[in-house]
Amino acid sequence: MDNIEHAVEHNVDDEAISAYKKSLDIDPLQPETVNNAFAILYNAERYEEALEFCDAFLERSYGITIITLLDSKHHVLKKLNRDAEAEQIKIQVINLLTENAIELIQQGLFGEALNDIENVLKRDPKNTQVVLLKAVAMGGLEKYDESRGLFKHYLTINPDDSTGWRNYASCLAMCNRLDESLDAYNKAIALAPSFAEAYGGKGSTLENMSRYEEALEAYDQTIERNPRYLMALICKVRVLSILNRYEEALNICDGLLAMERYSHIRPDIEQAREEIIHHLKNNAE
Q1: CA atoms of 204 and 222, how far apart (whole Å)
Q2: Which of 165, 102, 172 is nearest to 137 (CA)?
Q3: Which of 206, 157, 217, 210 is nearest to 183 (CA)?
Q4: What sign results for the dihedral spanned by CA atoms 164, 167, 170, 176?
């Protein structure tokens, strides 16, 4: 490391590059060292060497370092007027960042996902699919007004996206804009009549509006399309209980308890069952 610092301090490019390469031969997983070596070559306008350097380390790099190297390669290709290749690298970076953002959203890491999303939008501001991801991430961060605005923008451009309408409806429900939420769920269903999750969301909105008979119908439509949709089954138990239809609710609980795949929520189902039995006893008295 002393050799590197000496070479950089005295602006001796070849010595610095040689020292960096030796360091990377010992431990190639040093993002900062890779970046520094590339910067020397790039700033010295040794673009062909910088390009070879990027390619060599792309073969043995990992994670965010790959994106950093691809970005570096993109800049070099632009300097060399190899615009078509540069555009392909840009697309590759956007795809990697988008895939990573989706994985982070699925893990509930919305803040980290938002960083990748913003990086995509810097490169491609008109990427509507990533605008949709940003809307979802904002909702996950409970920034519902911002999320709602992004959904509206996305759906103006993509009015036939049933998933977009379903996610927008969910966001509206979180903002307590229940009439608008119901309209959005209905649009999602009109676009995709077999969309079980849209029916489930519609049921939840109707339930929050105290429209229990309609909510029950929506949950039934959800279960008809996906008999294993656990949340719809649980919601149906709750609505049946509100409507004093305890026997039907009890039958669903017993059916769930008999299924091994629902063992992870067995205590919750048993508690609901006890409450239903309590109501049945009170009614009998």
Answers
A1: 11
A2: 102
A3: 206
A4: negative
Query: Cα–Cα distances in Å, from 34 out to 19, 20, 51, 76?
Result: 12, 8, 12, 15
pLDDT, one tens digit per residue, over 228-246 is: 899 999 999 999 999 999 9
**How is residue 116 written in tokens?**
């990748």
Helical axes 230-242 vs 246-257, angle rounded to 10°: 150
| pTM of the predicted model as reported, rounded to 2 decimal places | 0.73
Find out whether 54 and 72 touch, Cβ atoms under 8 Å.
Answer: yes
Q: Amino acid letter at 148? A: R
The DSSP letter of residue 247 is H
Contact 134, 114 (CB under 8 A): yes
Do 223 and 236 form a contact (C-beta atoms < 8 A)?
yes
CA distances from 132 to 20, 64, 86, 177 (A): 42, 23, 26, 20
Distances (CA, A) of 265 to 147, 261, 271: 31, 9, 10
pLDDT grade for 11, boundaries at 50, 70 and 90: very low
- Give CA–CA dist 57/53, Å, rounded: 6
Percent of the chain residues topping a pLDDT of 90: 59
Judge contact between 204 and 177, C-beta under 8 A: no
101 within 8 A of 117, measured Cβ to Cβ: yes
- CA-CA distance, 283 to 41, in Å (whole number)? 83
142-167 per-position pLDDT tens digit: 999 999 999 999 999 999 999 999 99
CA dihedral 76, 116, 164, 236 (to 10 degrees): 150
Distance (Å, whole) CA 12 – CA 263: 67
